Amino acid sequence: MTETVLPRSHRPPGWTLPAGACDCHAHVFGPYERFPVSHRMHYAAPLAPAAAHRGMLDRIGLAHGVLVQPGAYGEDPSPILDALSQGGGRLRGIAAASERVPQADLDAWDAAGIRGLRFNDMTVPGGAGPFPGSVGTEALAAMAPGMRERGWHAEIWAGIDRHVENLPLYRASGLPIVLDHMAGLQIARGLDDPSFRMILDALREGWLWIKLVLCRCSQDFPDYADARPFHDALIEANPERVIWGSDWPHLRLAERAPDVGHLLDLFAEWVPDAGLRQQILVDNPRKLYGF
Description:
Elements (H helix, E strand, L loop, with lengths): L3 E2 L16 E5 L18 E2 L3 H11 L3 E5 L9 H9 L4 E5 L7 H10 L1 E7 L19 H11 L2 E5 L2 H13 L4 E3 L14 H12 L2 E5 L15 H10 L4 E3 L15 H11 L3 H16 L2
Parallel strand pairs: 1-3, 2-4, 4-5, 5-6, 6-7, 7-8, 8-9, 9-10
Helix pairs in contact: 5-6
């Protein structure tokens, strides 16, 4: 590793989270002597092993966490499996796999706490082509039957226009579909963007889920005020199909990495109803991930 960075230190939010609250989007990296990456990282390597992730959850007051496979580890979820083995049942994982991965491995992952597969259609920022090690949505149709058998869902990172293009594929999969990072929306297009309206329509249908993760769709650091109307619209469309995530350890964001406690304070401000907070932070993740 030529460069490593520590995740920023996070403060607790200024309010008491409901019992069972879950951060539905984070990553673990390393320890690199045990879990070296297999693909090039287009960001400084974070020092973010399982113990650091659990420490973040404990400081913030989060009971549960969901760990998502980064492209740098390809189709090897060993760091996530290691974290799950230490998590005492408080964690779940989202791996990445194509038909190359043996079914026996998928069964072992399921027993360990993996609850879905991630597909990534994003391109490298400032470059061309996909993130090295990622599995694109072209693999979804082939993987869907085995995922359905295991009760898994598909998690997808893509721009909003790509999502709209893929809506028929998503529907045909017969899987719950979870869109990362507020569905890759484009704030500059406004609430009337036809692509955003199509995502809202799919969200209302009940098979689509959205992760309320602010820091990848808004550049309005640290309060992300320009994202609030979209955040409100997603919740209004179907409060039973939205979940919250921090995106810890905030890859590539450097000095613009958000504080997780502040993100939760924004959530409390934007979602003042205690029952709705309970649904988004506790009830919805419990249903989706089987806590």
